[in-house]
Design goal:
This protein is mainly alpha-helical. It has a single domain, classed as MFS general substrate transporter like domains (Growth Hormone, Chain: A, Up-down Bundle), CATH 1.20.1250.20. The protein has 13 helices and no strands. Helix 1 (3-22) runs antiparallel to helix 7.
Length: 276
């Protein structure tokens, strides 16, 4: 295996673990709502805070994340493992709210750096490579409800403590695959070029943010609250969430393949309106 492929493999393993954990709360909210006696408003606040720390903070954190050094991806994997496992000690809305937010920060660290490095290491088929990166996360998110439903089937969240040693193993594998030797210089060069952006480009960035926000809201509502109106058992609900996420993941991979062959802005707009 070439060095670039080895590093991409290491990034992918960390991405899988990251998205497996960050998807825990949205996909298993129906169980957390029962165990923590959460109202719909409290559930919404938790999900909104998770979205803020795991997604909306990405542009801010990515500006400072490189100061953490080249082990930043390994660090974020350990970070999310520790704070996700700490959820096992929570019993109230406020405790869960704080820990979920702290765990989400790891996603804001991992995704911008991980995706940028994956594209930089890919010699060609950038769209497919990025789609593959997102698909790894999507597959992890798909299996998240099944994994955690089996782990906490009896409502005992203390088993989440096993996430810490798993996270340490993932971090060691990433270190062994030399993800701490990745070249970050190109990110700084890209940032300097980004200072000279035409007004038209800014308009398209605005459209991108608007459509992605609408899509994300619809997606999260369907994922977290749609399953709660059903009356199936825990495992059946987790299977339903798994199917929903898996279909979305396959769409991501197909989208990356299509975008390499039809690089059209209109195609992007149309694809985002499909979910709405």
């Amino acid at each position: 295996m070439g060095k670039n492929k080895q590093m991409i493999f290491g990034i992918s393993i960390g991405h899988f673990f990251n998205d497996l954990l960050v998807s825990f709360v949205p996909s298993m909210m129906f169980m957390l709502a029962i165990s923590h006696k959460l109202t719909i408003v409290q559930q919404t606040l938790i999900l909104a805070f998770l979205s803020f720390t795991s997604s909306m903070l990405q542009p801010v954190i990515s500006k400072f994340v490189l100061f953490l050094g080249k082990k930043v991806l390994i660090f974020s994997v350990i970070w999310i493992a520790v704070f996700t496992s700490a959820i096992s000690f929570t019993s109230s809305f406020l405790e869960l709210f704080i820990l979920v937010g702290l765990a989400g920060i790891a996603s804001s660290i991992y995704h911008p750096v991980g995706s940028a490095l994956t594209l930089n290491l890919s010699n060609k088929s950038k769209g497919f490579s990025l789609g593959l990166f997102m698909t790894v996360g999507g597959v992890a998110a798909s299996f998240s409800p099944l994994f955690f439903a089996m782990m906490t089937k009896s409502g005992d969240f203390r088993k989440l403590l096993f996430i810490v040693p798993i996270g340490l193993i993932v971090a060691f594998i990433m270190y062994a695959l030399k993800t701490d030797e990745l070249d970050f210089d190109f990110i700084n060069k890209s940032s300097s070029r980004a200072n000279h952006v035409e007004f038209c480009t800014y308009k398209w960035i605005g459209v991108l943010i608007l459509l992605t926000t609408i899509r994300s809201v619809v997606y999260k509502v369907m994922l977290s609250f749609g399953v709660q109106v059903l009356t199936y058992e825990v495992i059946s609900k987790s299977h339903l969430v798994f199917i929903f996420l898996l279909v979305s993941t396959l769409g991501t991979l197909i989208g990356g393949y299509v975008s390499d062959r039809i690089p059209s802005k209109l195609l992007f707009v149309a694809s985002n309106f499909q979910l709405c």
